Amino acid sequence: MESTKRKIFLALSLFLLLQSAAMTQSLRLFHIERNKNNSIVCYDLEVDNKTIAKNNPIDVYWEMPDQNNARNSLSVIQNKLVYGLTIEQVKGNSILFKLKAYPDRIVEVVYDSKKQQANAFTLINGSYVILKKLYIYATPPLYSSVEYIILVGLDPNTGETKKEKITNK
Predict the structure, then answer these.
(1) pLDDT digit string, tens, across residues 94-147
(2) Which residues lie closer than 8 Å to 81 by C-beta, 6 or more apart?
(3) Which of 102, 88, 115, 87 is nearest to 151 (CA)?
(4) Helix, strand or coil for residue 4?
(5) pLDDT of residue 11
(6) Does residue 129 contact residue 121 with C-beta atoms inside 8 Å?
């Protein structure tokens, strides 16, 4: 009898865990690559029950390919000064934000709840494109001074890759 109760409890717990996982979802928007190493900074949209999550709608974290894609949090300084973001507006299924390191461009996230897909849009060379990645080249050996940034995106109408290089003057 006790064994049956335990099995029912475990089955119910597993069912609830799977239901909870099905309601929350992380959707990769874009990432930042650097010349320093293979680690990337990821920007994921957090979706809860097919709506944009109210708390922390965009999750920003390190992904370490050299360490079996281990996931690490940003440090406080990295979040406040370099890789963090400032959310300007959350309205319905869209978010407007600026990257701390490059506040001159607004990024708009649009979430399609029916398709369960999200894209981050920004301007690249005057075209409104789906942002896929940023590449940051910093000057060795300390990597504390950014020499240039390359923005890479896809034209949503043609699928053509668009790039823009921004140099630090």
Answers:
(1) 999 999 878 889 999 999 999 999 999 999 999 999 999 999 999 998 888 889
(2) 100, 101
(3) 102
(4) helix
(5) 55
(6) yes
pLDDT of residue 104: 87
Are 98 and 106 a contacting pair, CB within 8 Å? yes
- For the chain, helix, strand, coil in percent to 5 are 20, 55, 25
What letter does residue 65 receive in the DSSP assignment?
G
Furthest-apart CA atoms within the chain: distance in Å: 75
**What's phi and psi for 153, nearest 5 deg?**
-150, 175
pTM, two decimal places: 0.84
Q: How many CA atoms lie within 13 A of 93 on its CB side?
A: 14
Say if residues 55 and 69 touch (Cβ distance below 8 Å): no
Considering only CA atoms, which of 101, 111, 160, 104 is closest in space to residue 132?
Answer: 160
Residue 56 and residue 22: Cα distance in Å, rounded? 18
| CA–CA separation, 85 and 103 (whole Å) | 9
Q: What is the rounded CA–CA span in Å between residue 98 and residue 110?
A: 15
Distance CA 70, CA 157 (A): 35
Q: Which helix (H) or strand (E) holds 12?
A: helix 2-23
